[in-house]
Amino acid sequence: MIAPIKILWLIPLLPLVAAGISAVLPRTCRKAAASLAIGAMAASLVLAVIAFVHTLPNTPREVLNFKWFDLGTTTLQLGFVLDPLTALMAVMVTFVSLLIFIYSIGYMAHDDNFARFFCFLSLFAAAMLGIVVANSLLLLFISWELVGLASYLLIGFWFHKPSAAAAAKKAFITTRIGDIGFFLGIVWLYSKSGTLLFYDNGTGCLEQSTLNQLLTQTALGGMAVSTAISLLLFCGAVGKSGQLPLHVWLPDAMEGPTPVSALIHAATMVAAGVFLVARVYPLMSTGTALHVVTWVGAITAVFAASIAVAQNDIKRILAYSTVSQLGYMMMGLGVGGVSVGMFHLITHAFFKALLFLGAGSVIHGCHEEQDIRNMGGLRKFMPVTFATYAVGMMALCGVPLVFSGFWSKDAILYAAHHWEPSSVPFFLGVVGAFLTAFYMTRQVYYVFFKPANPALRHPHESPRVMTIPLAILAVFAIALGAIGTPAWPWFQSFLGGETVHLEFAKLGEAMGLMLLSTVVVAFGIGLSFWIYRRETTADPLEVKFSSVYRLLQNKFYVDEIYEATIIRLNAALAKTFAWFDEYIWGGLVSLVSTLVLLISNFSRESDEKLVNSGFDEGCATVRDSAWLLSKIQNGQIQRYMRAIGLALCLLVIALLWGCS
Amino acid sequence: MTPLSYYLGLSGLLFAVGFAGAVTRRNAVIVLLGIEFMLNAANMNFIAFWRYGVSGTAPTGIMVVIFSIAIAAAEAAVGLALIIAVYRHRQTTQLEQIDSLKG
Amino acid sequence: MPNKITFCLTAIFTLSAAVAAMRLRNPVHCALSAALAFAGLAVAFLGLDAEFIGFAQILVYVGAISILTIFTVLLTRGSEVEQRAAIFSRSWITGIAITIGVTGAILLPVFSSSLSFKTAPVAASAPVQSIGNELMTRYLLPLEVMGLLLTAALVGAVVIAMSDAPDKKRLVVPASVGRASVTGFSSEVLPAKAGTTNQRELTTV
C-alpha cells in the first residue's frame, strides 16, 4: 500500500489534467468535457478519502518536500503536507465540487459553452486542492493565484454581458490588492527565516525554532516581526475571503452562473482565506495578529448581515450572507483557534452550497428570474427545492440542535464570550446571528410563501440531476453537526491531534449560551415573519425607515466611496503616468531617435560630401595629373630622342659624380 | 702614330653630328641618316679599340662591327619602308606632323 | 698605321661631309654627302687595318644604304620640297644644347681615362680567313640569327612598303638573298609601260 503522502500530489493533478484536456477539445465535445471533469473529481475524492482515513488514527503530520530549482546557492523547495487539516479540506472540497459538477450538467445544459465551463471548473478545483495540500507558501501562493484566475474566468463566463465582464475584473483586481500584502508577507518571511516550507523537520517556517526567532525581532512600530508578517499574510485572506475593506467584489461576483457562485463563492474559494489563516495559525498566534483578525471578522459579520436585509436579488442576499459568515469564521479563528473556525467553514461549505444550488434551482425554475419580489409561492411548484432550501436556511440561521450551523456558530460565540481582550466581538456575533435569521426568513418568505406572482409563468421543479445533489447536501447540513458538539468534539480533537471522549457534561457548560442563541434565532425568525407576512407590494422596512433602508440597500455606499477616492486616484495616477510616458519618456525616446537620425544624417552627409567627393576629387586629381603627364607624350619623336639624350647626360654626370 | 684618343674623338664628334641631325631635322629620312651616323660612330669606336689591343688580338671588334653593319642595314631598310608607308597615308615626311601617338 | 696628318685629313673630310649631310637643304644632297661621309669612314677603317670592315662599309653603307635613302627621298618627295621651308624643327636650339650635353657626356669619360691615350697599336691582323673561321665557330649562332633577322627585315620592308590596293604588279623576290644587300624593290623597277599607271601609281607601291 503506497503511503498517501506519496500520491497526495495526484489530488490536485487529476483535475488539472482534466482541465488541460478539456481546453484543447472542441466546443462541441460536451459529454467528454463533463465526463473528464467529473471523473477526475471522483478520483480525487477517492484519493482524498484514502488520505483522510489514513490520518484518522491520530497519525502525526507527514510531509513530502522536493527541490524545485536552484538559484545559485539557495534552493527553492516545494512540498506537500498531509495532516488532519489537509485531509479535512481535501475531502470537503472534492465532495462539494463533485456534487456541484453533477448539478452543473443540468444547470448549464442549455448553454453553448458547456465544455468551456467544465474546463474552468476543473482548473479551479485543481488550484483549490493545490492550496489545500501545499506545504510551501510558494506553492500555496501559486495555487492561490490560479484560484483567482479561475474565479475571474468563471465570473466572467458570460463575458458578452458587460456587467459580468466588469464584475470579473473587479473580483480579480480587488483580490489582487489583498495579494500585494500577501506577497510582501511571503517575501518578508522568506528573508527572515530562509525557508518557505511550512514543516521541514524542524526548520519550516511554522515550526518552533523559526517562530521563536521571528517573535524576538521587532519591526516598525514596536510590532514583532511575526505579527507584521502575519498581518501581511492576513491581507491576502482579507482579499480572498471578502472581509471588510475588500468585500466589494463578492456581491458583484454573482454575475457568474449559479454553480460558480455555489462552488467558488460559498463553499471553497472564499474559504481559502480562512484556510490560509488556519494553515499559518502557529505564526499568527505568536504576537497580536489574531486580535486584528477577530475585529475584522466581527465587524464584517455585522456589516454584511445588515446589508443583506435590504437586498432584493436572491443571489445577492446569499452573497452578503457569505461575507457575513466568513466574518464569523475569521472571528472564530481569532478567538477560538483553528478548530473553531474550521468547523464553521466545513458546515458553512455544505449549507451555503446547498442554499446557492437551491437558489439556482429556483432561478432555473422561474426562467432566469432573480428578483425575489417577483417570486412567490414556489413551495407548491418546487417541493424538493423548497425542502432542501429550508434545511439550508435553518442551518444558516442556527436553528438549534438539529442543524450543523447551530453547533458551529455556537462554538464561535462560546469562544468569543470567553475571549479575554474584549467582549465586543461576542455582542457583534449575537447581533449578526439575529440579522442572519432575519434576512434569511425574509428571503424564504418572499420566495416560497408569499402569494404567487401572476407574471411568473410556469415555475417548475428542476430535473433530478439538479435536485439529487441538493438532497445530499441537505443531509450533510444536518449530519455534520454531530461531529462538533461539545459532548463529543470529534472535530476539534481530530484537528488538535487528541483522542476524543464522549462527555455530556460539557453540554452543561455551554447550556447558557445555547439558550441565548436559540432565543436570538427565534426572535429573528419571528420578527421577520411578523413584519413580512402581510405585505406583498412594498417592503415595510423600506416604507418605515426609508433612509436607513436606502443606506443598506446601497451597501453603505462603499462602492461609491471607493469609486470617488481610490478609483479616481488610480485614474489620475494613470493619467499622470500616461502623460509622463507620452511626453517625458516618449520625448526622451524621440530625442534619442532624433539624435540617432542626426548622427546618421551627418554620417550620410559626410559620406556623400566628404568621403565620396573626396574620393571623386582624388580621382579627378589623379586624372588631371595623368592628363598633365600625358602631355609629355606629344607624338613628337624628336622630343623623345632629346629626352633620351638628356637622360644620358644626367646619368653620366651621376655616375661620374658618384664614383669620384 | 695617332693616339687612340684621336679615333675616339672622331667617333665622338661623328656621334654628336649624327645626334644633332637626328633631333633637329624635320625630314624623317634625314633623321634616319643621322641615326646611321651614330651607328657608324659606334662601329668606329669598336674598330679603334680592337686595333689598339684593348682586349687582345682576337678579331672581336671586327665581328661586332660585322653584325652591327648588318643590323644597321636591316634597320635602315625597314625604317625607310616605314617612312614610305607613312608617307602613303599622311602625304608627308615631316616628323612634326606625324604625331598621332600623342597622349 | 697612318700618321697623324693622314688621319686628321680623313677625319676632317668625314666630319665635314657629316655636317653637310645634316645641314643641307635638299635631302638628295644630304644623302649624297652622307655617302661621302661613309666613304671617309671606310678610309679610316682601312687605315686601322680593318680591311674587311672598310670594304663592307663601302658595300653596305655607300652602296646600299645611301642609295636606299636616295630612293626613299625620291619616293616621298611629292610637292613638299619647298625652297624656303624650314629644315630644322622649331626648337632646334634645344636639340643643339642637348647635343652638346651628349657630346660632353661621351667625350668626358673618354678623355678622362688613361686607357684612351694609348699610342702604340698592337700588331693586329684580321685576315678574312680568320674572320670566316670565327663566324663559323664562335659566332655561329649570331650568324644564323642575323640571317633570320635579315630575312625578316627583307620581307617586312616589302610588306610594309607595299601598296594596300591590290594591284596587277606582282611582287618579285630574288631567289638568292644576299647577306648585306637588300634588293626588295624589284617591283619598283618594273616599267610603267603597263599602261594603266599614272602619276599617282608611280609613287605608290
Structural description of this entry:
The complex is a heterotrimer of chains A (660), B (103) and C (205). By secondary structure, chain A is mainly α. A two-stranded antiparallel ribbon of chain A has the order 1-2. The mean pLDDT of chain A is 85. Chain A has helices at 10-24, 30-55, 84-107, 114-133, 137-155, 162-193, 208-216, 225-240, 249-252, 258-267, 269-279, 281-285, 289-308, 314-336, 338-365, 378-381, 383-397, 404-417, 424-449, 464-479, 490-496, 505-532, 540-544, 546-553, 558-630, 637-659; strands spanning 62-71, 74-82. In chain A, helix 3 (84-107) packs antiparallel against helix 10 (258-267) and helix 15 (338-365) packs antiparallel against helix 18 (404-417). Chain A has 26 helices and 2 strands. Chain B has one domain: Helix Hairpins (Orthogonal Bundle). Helix content of chain B is 74%, strand content 0%. The longest helix of chain B has 31 residues, at 60-90. Chain B starts with a helix and ends in a 13-residue tail after the last helix. With 205 residues, chain C is mainly alpha-helical. Chain C folds into 2 domains: 2-126, Four Helix Bundle (Hemerythrin (Met), subunit A), CATH 1.20.120; 128-163. Chain C has 8 helices and no strands. Chain C has helices spanning 4-23, 27-47, 51-75, 92-111, 128-136, 140-161, 186-189, 199-203. In chain C, helix 2 runs antiparallel to helix 3. In chain C, 28% of the residues are buried. The model of chain C is unreliable at 183-205 (pLDDT under 50). At the A-B interface, helix 26 of A face helix 1 of B.
